[in-house]
């Protein structure tokens, strides 16, 4: 039976919860008049950094982002809020969950536009990974998020292994046969 971990350095989720709110201005828009996805990604990276660095007590870098689905467009003039919390911690990395909502300040209509998960790695002054505090889970939602993040990590690990074993036929004719029902044309 393992001994319980020393929890004196653990921090509750609420310690590092972070909200960034920003007004969407015309210079943020794309050619379709909606807010550029890259603007939202940049804001998400910013809020993930703040949340992770607060928890870790160190500089943090983005290691990966698990899916970004743009579910609703964001309009110029809307107020966007990005709510971040630490969902999972490992030894040197942590997963920050981010929920993005936009609010039309004239109509008060609020819509959920994105949810994403950023894996961040804590670094010391020499740019080496550093041990981070454990996480105190204080309610059922936090427990659920921790377990879901751990499950996403397992799925991601399996996906990486599958990708490493993608085999493309060496024979060009076999490749062309694999493309027979696709919307592409091979010219030669």
Structural overview:
The protein is an alpha+beta fold and 188 residues long. Helices cover 30% and strands 29% of the residues. It contains four helices and seven strands. A hairpin with a 3-residue loop joins strand 4 (79-89) and strand 5 (93-103).
For the termini, the CA-CA separation is 65 Å
**Proportion of helical residues:** 25-40%
| Strands, count | 7
Radius of gyration: 21 Å
List the helices and strands and how they pair.
Elements lengths: L10 E2 H4 L1 E6 L13 H20 L2 E8 L12 E11 L3 E11 L6 E14 L11 E2 L3 H25 L7 H7 L10
Parallel strand pairs: 1-7
Antiparallel strand pairs: 2-4, 3-6, 4-5, 5-6
Considering the chains and any ligands shown, give keywords for the structure.
single chain, alpha+beta, five-stranded antiparallel sheet, 4 helices
In short:
The chain is an alpha+beta fold.
